[in-house]
Design a protein that fits this description.
Elements lengths: L3 E2 L6 H5 L7 H17 L11 H5 L7 H14 L9 E2 L15 H11 L11 H14 L15 H15 L8 E4 L2 H12 L5 E7 L4 H8 L3 E8 L5 E2 L1 H13 L3 E8 L11 H14 L2 E5 L15 H8 L8 E6 L13 E6 L3 H13 L27
Parallel strand pairs: 4-5, 4-7, 7-8, 8-9
Antiparallel strand pairs: 1-2, 3-10, 5-6, 9-10
Helix pairs in contact: 5-6, 8-9, 11-12
């Protein structure tokens, strides 16, 4: 998603470039940059010493345009007049910042887990207290959450995710294959770190894409292999295009190790048909490619096509396709929760080599553990708090 402004006479480019009212801005900026460069020459970390992979990585949704927007916001807060009244950040999916209401239940559970004295508060709903007591009993932390947990994450939370996946797909889920993370992006970075070992290692990524993927590939010195979604067919994946781009990469000596499948699409918003997902699974089985299923928008469905997880697709296909190597990602940042700032997510590994899974666990131990300010599960229909959910949900 890109940045949009409501403005009158001046163009958005002029506003974003800081050119409104003065052509001197460009010369001033160049002069400032030159002076800054001289001052930085004696620093250990500078333009010349920072790793080239870091400099090559681009993450547009947090790049220059957002930085310029922050400057404009500060200027407006100080009373500077602009040819518009309000600046709206649409560079990233951030539901709460745009007014999406929160679940009181979830917030109450988290509050009680972080500060158990609230369990005696009459302002906390009864079912939220019950849920918090269950969680606190499971982790055996008398003073609430805050201590390190196991590196894959709290077992009680992984057991809850296991039940969710099994209810959704109708297939077993092993909690030992579940890893909690600080958002799905954190888990994606772990998997990319394991996958990319050489500049000739390639990962197929959709175009349009969420720029996390191209940024991480650059950062880890791999090669992005783009495949193009067909806008005229509702942003469906075109298998002929996928095959052609795979072959093109092979001809260049690139070893394609994985494919990123974003379903529902980001930023395109489409829900992929089961047939499309089956074609991808068969292609990946044939070419020994790991499937990386970004499914964080699975609760944000627009249109009549139902969401089907990649895990369900490969297991519905049966042998031999149900042996496809698969890593699925989900997050609390989207859907009805929209809790982007609390950084909650998970990945599930399916058909991954035990040694490789052990190395993934090792990587997760380096950062000790994921965020323990957890979001467990929303209230069930039988819970009292269900009647207090936001009407928009």
């Amino acid at each position: 998603l890109f940045f949009f402004f409501f403005f009158k006479q001046k163009t958005a480019y002029e506003i974003l470039s800081g050119l409104v009212g003065s052509e001197m801005c460009i010369r001033d900026r160049v002069s400032t940059q030159s002076t800054w460069g001289l001052l930085m020459q004696d620093k250990v970390l500078n333009k010349d010493t920072i790793g080239k992979n870091v400099k090559n990585a681009e993450y547009a949704i947090r790049g220059y345009i957002v930085q310029r927007a922050d400057e404009i916001t500060e200027q407006m807060a100080k009373g500077q007049k602009m040819p518009f009244k309000k600046l709206l950040y649409c560079n990233i999916g951030n539901p709460l910042s745009l007014g999406q209401p929160t679940y009181t239940f979830d917030r109450e559970v988290v509050a009680c887990c972080m500060n158990p004295i609230l369990l005696d508060s009459p302002s906390i709903s009864v079912d939220a207290k019950d849920r918090a007591k269950t969680l606190l009993k499971s982790v055996d932390y008398p003073h609430g959450l805050g201590a390190y947990t196991s590196s894959p994450g709290l077992k009680v939370v992984r057991e809850s995710i296991k039940r969710y996946i099994e209810e959704r797909d109708g297939y077993p889920c092993d909690i030992n294959n579940l890893f909690l993370a600080n958002g799905a992006s954190d888990a994606v970075q772990t998997i990319f770190t394991v996958l990319l070992t050489d500049p000739k290692d390639g990962i197929l990524i959709p175009i349009p894409q969420y720029p996390l993927y191209s940024a991480l590939i650059s950062l880890l010195n791999g090669t992005p292999v783009p495949y193009y979604l067909n806008e005229s067919k509702g942003w469906a994946l075109d298998m002929e295009d996928l095959s052609a781009n795979y072959k093109k990469a092979q001809d260049l000596g690139i070893k394609v190790k994985a494919i990123v499948v974003i379903n529902p699409g980001n930023p395109t918003g489409q829900v992929m048909s089961k047939k499309n997902l089956e074609d991808i699974a068969k292609f990946c089985y044939e070419h020994k490619i790991i499937i990386l299923a970004d499914e964080v928008y699975q609760k944000n469905i627009y249109g009549s096509t139902p969401f089907v997880s990649m895990k369900k697709v490969i297991h519905d296909l049966g042998a031999p396709w149900n042996t496809c190597e698969l890593v699925s990602f989900h997050s609390t940042s989207k859907g009805f929760l929209g809790e982007c700032g609390l950084r909650g997510g998970y990945m599930e590994l399916d058909n991954i080599d035990p040694y490789a899974q052990g190395q993934i666990l090792k990587l997760r131990t380096i950062t000790l553990c994921p965020n323990t300010c957890l979001l467990y599960t929303s209230p069930s229909p039988r819970d009292l708090s269900t009647s207090r959910m936001p009407s928009s949900a």
